[in-house]
């Protein structure tokens, strides 16, 4: 029986993690969850899985839930609640599926507590990869990727020696706007941007797919997870999202992981690793039915956010934290109808240009840079 | 320094194995070779690699070579020479790249001698898989596949537990005649059949590609190499031969190995396993340049030899030996201009129908069945 803490239980990855646990009730037990403000959904999860610890974002919600839950269920709130969820004493694996840079501190706390971490929170590695990977190595903790791309690379590397890697090839569907020119991107609406061709995901990550920022953040994450220089990480446009990513070795052999676009497969793999459990109910890949797989070079001129990510990653230090905070704030303004789609790029670029690099920022510095960048983006008037 | 015996040195796989050794002279030493009747090429190999043992097919050729080679080089001939090549005392790895069922006995001798075997000779496993795999298990000897398809599957299985396999998916380019109807196949010439779209190979195996017998023999070989029932082995038409084969796991994840169509990559992998050596001179896979990969269901009506292979494999016992001998004899008759292309199928089918199954044939029985089937095919008048 593997005991699981799930941070971000009511989000897209969180709900799919619950599906995996539901399908394997003899193997998995849900020990602790954290959720945001979706109390109706949180209540359902408590009823179905009966976790020992529940944490929500707001104090008032926690107080309502406290009166409802069974005796022995602990209810917490806020950052302290998140931290307790992350390193609950009975937990074997923490699934970190919260959105945004709020995922960083709980991850570090779980690493110190020696938990295995299934990591779906990009920002943890993007903003503080140097700190997180050092802590993981020091505590001999495994970081198992949940993202389909990183899970694919991780699967391709089983039984292999990382010294033999020539390059990581991260595939990209191209997002909602892959067939639009830059001019055509000028007037796109929030609804258009939220319509992803292959994957069903949350709003922020869907916008990040449309700008290709999502792919760029994955590049930075891959750099940290697998210890590969940016020069050896490639992004390949692959519309069908069937090949989830690849690894090329020095001998020119390329390993790839394929599947239908179903996040439950990489989630389950992270929870069962190094074993695999059957998924009798999941859809099977049928390549003959699909018929063709397409591949194209990535257009860095068209997808500037991707270029910014490579640049920020290579600059290192505090730069990726600026990139990430600027993007989060800019996407929020776009979803809020305050700025246009292409303004997201502009705000990120301005934030990066303005920032003076700190080479080895500590957690306090990263937190400050994060707040400062958000303030800058929120106050900038592009009119 | 890994010491290599190479059987079938002047054939297509043999010459490419020599390329690999040539490119890695600090890591590999050629200890022993066997060749057929191509004495000019054998002489060149002796001059370049200076092996300690050389074996050729005919006594008279051996006697000519004996007078030419340096002192200390042993020259042998015939079956006895093959057997000595297979288990030369200084050899670490035997590359068995001979064509046809002549490869069986030397493989068994090498297994008894505890050599690691890089196996490119299909007939060894097709005709006597039950005997060979039992001997390999008993002597704890590794059989490393050289064929691009089996090497791909072998690479996909690294770090995995075979209990989690759902199916093996062997890809097939479809050979020279993949776009012809059965009616169009009636009058095809030997030259047309020898023109393979993707791979440069020997004559017999190129004809086997055109009839799809090659793919069928690979199915039987995969059954033995990986211990997977025929019901869980699929063949998928994939024109570009870029995905060399795949493994689907119970969790619906599919692992694939890709590369340019260059046999030196799987050959080198078998020689360096579990490590990989760089191939700085090899062509790299560029999927963006290739643009599209195609996949189609296999047409078992059109490619009857493939169906015969599944049937013979499932029947088991002596049936695959009949299939293989009938095919070898029939292809020889086709290359000799005696029969038409579709007569190959007919001769195989008649041989299988006529044969009475022996459930656990020993080596003597397999040898007899082989001769008997060849005689039957050679004497049958289809006129």
TrEMBL record, chains A, B:
Pathway: Isoprenoid biosynthesis; isopentenyl diphosphate biosynthesis via DXP pathway; isopentenyl diphosphate from 1-deoxy-D-xylulose 5-phosphate: step 1/6. It comes from Rossellomorea vietnamensis. Residues 258-375 form the DXP reductoisomerase C-terminal domain. The keyword Cell membrane does not apply. NADPH binds at residues 10-13, 36-38, 121, 123, 202. 1-deoxy-D-xylulose 5-phosphate binds at residues 122, 148-149, 173, 196, 209, 214-215, 218. HAMAP family: DXP_reductoisom. GO terms for biological process: isopentenyl diphosphate biosynthetic process, methylerythritol 4-phosphate pathway involved in terpenoid biosynthetic process. Belongs to the DXR family. One of its GO terms (molecular function) is 1-deoxy-D-xylulose-5-phosphate reductoisomerase activity. Gene3D superfamilies: 1.10.1740.10, NAD(P)-binding Rossmann-like Domain (3.40.50.720). Residues 4-129 form the 1-deoxy-D-xylulose 5-phosphate reductoisomerase N-terminal domain. SUPFAM superfamilies: 1-deoxy-D-xylulose-5-phosphate reductoisomerase, C-terminal domain, Glyceraldehyde-3-phosphate dehydrogenase-like, C-terminal domain, NAD(P)-binding Rossmann-fold domains. Catalyzes the NADPH-dependent rearrangement and reduction of 1-deoxy-D-xylulose-5-phosphate (DXP) to 2-C-methyl-D-erythritol 4-phosphate (MEP). This is 1-deoxy-D-xylulose 5-phosphate reductoisomerase. Its EC number is 1.1.1.267. Its cofactor is Mg(2+); Mn(2+). It comes from the Bacteria.
